[in-house]
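FAQ

Q: What does a record look like?
A: Structure on top, sequence underneath. For example:
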């Protein structure tokens, strides 16, 4: 039977392909090869990030500046996230293995069919991940091929090779290009970097979304276990009002107490898992927010001053994927908040007032731990929720209007 950790393995293996995680049974030579692979990725991304930063300071064209800032923030934040996850790869990989412990405890509380319950609940997660990856790589493809549809026939080959607009990213070129093979080599490096940075962002996202969705499934399993126990307690209440033997009532009471105790352990593990997610992804979420508000502001501005149809399509793809990324971040943040609150709602229906003192203590403890849910945040500066997404969109529109007004004033002058 498929365990919950197997669903997170898809994102885990995807991040292994881009050098974030390494195999637990890797040899010395495998680790050397992995470090060399990581070094190549680091050099490519860092070099393009630095060259785009230089281009931002030397360009005088507002359109080029807006386009450069869009992609530079994407590369800078993506490189930071890749370095951070690579440096703390053991802590992040532990999220995958901790799901096995969480699922095992869920089986003790729910029963043998917990694996089937979890598999049915998480069946859609891989489909969501695949479609999310597909949309991201489509956007990366449009960004990569955009220069091929904006050729300027008035330029000579020499001018075309040395024009930053001839490449997917607006980068400063530190040397003069004279040959076609040099142009093709740099263009190929841009395409490789485009798909690398897309893979980093998308891979980290599906790992984050998968971890939250998996623990949400465990909370739903917990609620189902509590509902089953509620039926047992209701039967116990009927037995206590009838002439059934007290020995039978005592056995039922002990069974309910044992089940609730396992549910409490399951609940504690789930909350600890959510806290681990919040702690590990805190800095990445903050970086996502800063990147999103900056790049989307300039992307919207670039859209208003764009004169090429190909460039317009590229910018629209970039905006759609970036907004979709921000929405999913907040969707899963709100998702895990509501899942935690649902535990207290379920416990409210348990007839605890008719139960033994030990059972009342367990129920009270679980309610207290559910009344204040753990919120996934970016260092408490940005909380993932629907409310935060609405605030993000409002701030984005405000910054865009300010930038547009400044541009109009400069044009009039």
């Amino acid at each position: 039977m498929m365990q919950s950790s197997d669903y997170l393995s898809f994102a885990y293996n995807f991040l292994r392909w881009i050098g974030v995680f390494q195999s637990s049974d890797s040899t010395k030579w495998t680790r050397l090869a992995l470090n060399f692979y990581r070094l190549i990725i680091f050099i490519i991304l860092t070099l393009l990030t630095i060259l785009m930063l230089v281009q931002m300071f030397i360009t005088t064209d507002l359109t080029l500046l807006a386009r450069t800032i869009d992609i530079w923030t994407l590369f800078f934040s993506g490189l930071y996230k890749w370095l951070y996850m690579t440096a703390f790869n053991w802590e992040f990989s532990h999220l995958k293995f901790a799901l096995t412990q969480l699922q095992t405890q869920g089986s003790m509380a729910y029963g043998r069919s917990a694996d089937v319950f979890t598999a049915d609940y998480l069946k859609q997660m891989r489909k969501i991940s695949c479609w999310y990856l597909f949309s991201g790589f489509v956007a990366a493809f449009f960004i990569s091929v955009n220069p091929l549809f904006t050729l300027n026939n008035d330029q000579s080959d020499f001018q075309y090779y040395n024009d930053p607009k001839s490449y997917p990213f607006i980068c400063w070129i530190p040397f003069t290009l004279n040959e076609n093979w040099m142009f093709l080599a740099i263009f190929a490096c841009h395409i490789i970097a485009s798909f690398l940075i897309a893979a980093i962002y998308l891979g980290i996202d599906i790992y984050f979304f998968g971890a939250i969705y998996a623990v949400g499934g465990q909370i739903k399993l917990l609620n189902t276990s509590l509902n089953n126990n509620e039926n047992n307690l209701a039967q116990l209440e009927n037995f206590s009002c009838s002439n059934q033997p007290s020995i039978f009532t005592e056995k039922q009471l002990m069974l309910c107490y044992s089940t609730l105790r396992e549910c409490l352990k399951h609940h504690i593990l789930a909350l600890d898992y959510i806290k681990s997610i919040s702690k590990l992804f805190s800095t990445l979420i903050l970086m996502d927010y800063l990147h999103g508000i900056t790049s989307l502001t300039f992307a919207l501005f670039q859209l208003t001053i764009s004169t090429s149809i190909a460039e317009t399509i590229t910018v629209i793809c970039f905006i759609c994927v970036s907004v979709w990324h921000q929405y999913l971040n907040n969707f899963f943040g709100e998702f895990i908040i509501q899942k935690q609150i649902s535990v207290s709602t379920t416990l409210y229906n348990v007839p605890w007032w008719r139960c033994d003192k030990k059972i009342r203590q367990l129920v009270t403890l679980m309610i207290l731990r559910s009344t204040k849910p753990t919120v996934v945040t970016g260092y408490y500066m940005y909380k993932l929720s629907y409310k935060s997404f609405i605030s993000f969109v409002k701030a984005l529109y405000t910054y865009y209007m300010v930038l547009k007004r400044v541009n109009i004033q400069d044009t009039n002058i």
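Q: Is there anything notable about this one?
A: The chain has twelve helices and no strands.
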